[in-house]
Amino acid sequence: MRVVTQHTLGGPEVLTVVDAPEPRPLPTEVLVRVKAIGLNPLEARLRAGEFPLLGRPPFVLGWDISGVVEEGPLTWRFRPGDEVFGMPLFPRAANAYAEVVAAPALHLAHKPPSLSHIEAAALPIAGLTAWQGLVDLAAVTEGHRVLIHGGGGGVGHIAIQIAKARGAHVITTAGPNKRSFVEALGADEVIDYTTVDFTEAARDIDVVLDTIGGDTAERSLAVLHPGGRLVTAVAEDDQRLIAAYEAAGMHFSGIAVDPDPIALRGLVDLVNQGRLQVHIQKTFPFEHITEAHQHLDTGHLQGKLVLTL
């Protein structure tokens, strides 16, 4: 089979397609013939060596997959021929930039018929991050006012739809070129961050979801009502920030996404109800991985990038 590997840290040019032996599934794992692979900003940071989650190269990046089960010894969850998707093993290496992946059956779900493999591969990391942040940590429900920073991005565009499905009033920050996109997803209010300071435009917020980083989380203190909650996917262990929120009487929650079959089924339910769609900005053939990561490095994506096989 073909895999994408790297032997040094650096830019997109360090990624190369090579031949490798197919993995063998352990008991309770399944062997998946991959049809599409979702790309995430985290993978660009790992490639560049910004933090050593996977150790030193060589390693194979990737977690988001959609494909077809080929075999699964001693698991009752799937049969050969089943179409599945998921985010196996995160944060351990799943070696998902590959034509074949061995994955724990518990970390996968049946692909909804209404989603293509391309759309399904784009959903797990972004969708589970949004779900675990808004549903599990913040318990967003009807009547809540939710501010989502970066509503046009991978996590943000799914978070808007989850919050709306749960009855929230959704406010999001987005650039002018993404206004119509986030409004179509259901955003009730859009703050153009290029011309408006969100701390002056948003008030009495119950939950803030931060997908941006920088000083966004700290400045979000100003828009929360007493007892409000920040959920951040980019500053989850910032002790100074945690202390500032506690001193202000606010709740701070950092989200580090993990495989979650219950949340994955929750996302599937929303898809099946027609309340959740996954936006794909661009797809790339597997062998064009360098070009795909060049796009990933540009940032400010609208939705997700996906490799196809």
Description:
The protein is an alpha/beta fold and 309 residues long. The chain is built from 10 helices and 15 strands. The strands form 3 sheets. Strands 3, 4, 5, 6, 7, 14 and 15 form a 7-stranded mixed β-sheet that branches. A 6-stranded parallel β-sheet has the order 10-9-8-11-12-13, sandwiched between helices. A two-stranded antiparallel sheet has the order 1-2. The longest helix is centred in the middle third of the chain and has 14 residues, at 124-137.
- So how many helices? 10
Tell me the strand percentage band. 25-35%
Q: Helix- and strand-based class?
A: alpha/beta
Report mean pLDDT, rounded to a whole number.
96
User: Which residue ranges are poorly predicted, with pLDDT under 50 across at least 5 consecutive positions?
Assistant: none
